[in-house]
Design brief:
mainly alpha; 62% helix
């Protein structure tokens, strides 16, 4: 089996060394073995775990969710049903978030319409919306 130093791992996984320390501290990757002179040696499979973490983050999974999802895949006797459930839950969360962002975009567009080009006037609906408890609905 071929092992990697932390700098080799960071380079191959395209992360910085501090990210590897952080993932290790959070239990997302296993602590590596050490050589007799104390150098850390990571197994090649650690690259795949880091790539998994990066991809999960890009899909909106938190590190806690990513850790849980990883356990479903990496434990002996994979639990694909639980992994699928977590992924379906994330899809629903992302869809709900997308709806909220779309509604927020509509509200902001309405604010811009209310504002027009009157930037010099005393009362600004944009500023009022952001500084007071004023809600404009589309």
């Amino acid at each position: 089996m071929h092992f990697l130093t932390i700098s080799q791992l960071a380079r191959k996984a395209e992360v910085n060394i501090q990210t590897i320390y952080y993932y290790e501290k959070r239990g997302l990757i296993l602590s590596p073995g050490r050589t007799l002179n104390g150098h850390r040696r990571f197994p090649q499979e650690t690259i795949h775990r880091i790539l998994f973490i990066r991809k999960a983050k890009s899909y909106g999974f938190t590190l806690k969710e990513t850790s849980e999802l990883g356990r479903y895949f990496w434990k002996a006797g994979k639990d694909c049903l639980k992994a699928k459930k977590r992924i379906k839950d994330k899809i629903e969360t992302l869809k709900n978030t997308a709806r909220v962002f779309a509604k927020n975009a509509e509200c902001l567009e309405r604010l811009l319409e209310l504002c027009g080009n009157n930037c010099g006037r005393q009362s600004c609906p944009l500023l009022e919306c952001f500084t007071k408890n004023v809600v404009f609905k589309p």
